[in-house]
Amino acid sequence: MGVIIMKDSYNRRVNYMRISITDLCNLRCMYCMPEEGICKKEHKDILSFEEMIDIVKVAVTLGIDKIRITGGEPLVKKGIVDFVAAISQIDGIKDIAMTTNGILLKKYIGDLKKAGLKRFNISIDSLDPKKYKEITRGGDIQQVLEGIGEAIKLGMTPVKINTVVIGGYNEDEIKDFAKLTMDNNIEVRFIELMPVGQASNWAKDKFISNAAIKERIGDLIELSHELSSPAQYYKLPGSKGKIGFINPISNHFCLECNRIRLTCDGKLKPCLHSNQEIDILNIARNNPEALKDVLEASILAKPQKHHLTSEEYQPGKRNMSQIGG
Fold this sequence. Notes:
Blueprint: E1 16-20, H1 49-60, E2 66-70, H2 80-88, E3 95-100, H3 105-115, E4 119-123, H4 129-136, H5 141-153, E5 159-164, H6 174-179, E6 186-191, H7 203-206, H8 210-217, E7 221-222, E8 231-235, E9 242-246, E10 259-262, E11 267-269, E12 278-279, H9 281-286, H10 291-300, H11 320-323
Parallel strand pairs: 1-2, 1-10, 2-3, 3-4, 4-5, 5-6, 6-9
Antiparallel strand pairs: 7-8, 8-9, 10-11, 11-12
Helix pairs in contact: 2-3, 3-5
């Protein structure tokens, strides 16, 4: 089957699919998930790994060559190593990465590397054990740091650390995060707090712009922009790693967006910050011949940009844990 280089209606090449394989998580981060967790879906209401693999095989024929596995927390999903191995064996897939909270990373990292996983993005919002436990409602930062150490040891670099700065919680740790880039090939990426799900009602009061974060760090050397990367990168003088700033609120990167998202309950999301979702679960099960048409329609449905800052914006109905962030 030939490969089409698929572009959306704004001439952006879409080659990146983020797959949320579960909406369950072993943490309860304040801006991501309710403290009580979420109701576990029945098996019939979520895509199986086999169905996700079938969707990826069709997506490859449209030019998708990069996959990111997300959650919830992907490492709580039984069979994750075999799933990564199956994706890595699909002809046309060039890159497989994962976003994780890192709690179980040390346990699985060796097997995941053998299966074909290339890199990790690890979400950490505090390096202080007490504060980390508070923000995540129970997490142990030491487990995460050990996982990062193992990733560096195995050469799965750069390790990308995603940090959401929350006013009143972790803004005093900005320089501590920046210093992580000095001695290792680590990219610390500061992501502005987004008004989605759990954070939609309080994000405005606790929002700190990346411009303010940049000012607090100071002495940064700007690096050339990587096309289609959501981050603008800088480095501290003499550092081995980099510091990135992802500005979905103050300076969006929509004009370079190259991704679509697949949720565990079988919805295609052309845009993270839109409630628009295209149902693909029933198509995958009952009419797989139509998968290509539905994926094409999803790509063409990508909006020109999000409307987070407009007065008409309606906050996302689903939490980050349900849509893969």
